[in-house]
Amino acid sequence: MAEGDGTEGGSRRFPAGAGSGRLTGVTTLAVTGHMDLTRASVPLVRTALDDLLASHASESLTGVSCLARGADSVFAEAILAAVAAS
């Protein structure tokens, strides 16, 4: 998982409300990861995701996930918590 310019994964800013005259930006974050995380790795993945999401705390966030078990589900939980906290 790397934050980048949108060409290699990571985060990318898209204009919201295309055609509506609004120019508000939305940051879209997506994740893909291992399904079989060990018990020891889950908190490490969650901490890394929380740190990434904290760096986007002042932005309007949209998360994209397949909701598979493992990293995808941890990401979904982390982004829901980040949005609820903002």
How would you describe this protein?
The protein has a domain of 50 residues. It contains 2 helices and 3 strands. It has a 3-stranded mixed sheet. Strand 2, helix 1 and strand 3 form a beta-alpha-beta unit. Helix 1 runs parallel beside helix 2. It is globular.
How much strand content do the residues show? 15-25%
Supply the number of helical segments.
2
Low-confidence stretches: 1-9
Major sheet size, sense and barrel closure: 3 strands, mixed
What is the succession of H and E elements? Answer: EEHEH
Instruction: Enumerate the strands of the largest sheet in spatial order, edge to edge or round the barrel.
Output: 1-2-3
How far apart, in Å, are the first and last alpha carbons? Answer: 23 Å
Overall mean confidence score, pLDDT: 78
Structural class given helices, strands, pairing? alpha+beta
Helix content estimate: 25-40%
Extended strand count: 3
Q: What is the gyration radius calculated from CA atoms?
A: 14 Å
Outline, from the CA principal axes?
Answer: globular
Quickly list its features.
alpha+beta, 3-stranded mixed sheet, single chain, disordered N terminus, 17% strand, 86 residues
Short description:
This protein is an alpha+beta fold and 86 residues long.
Layout of helices and strands:
Elements: E1 11-15, E2 25-30, H1 41-54, E3 61-64, H2 71-85
Parallel strand pairs: 2-3
Antiparallel strand pairs: 1-2
Helix pairs in contact: 1-2
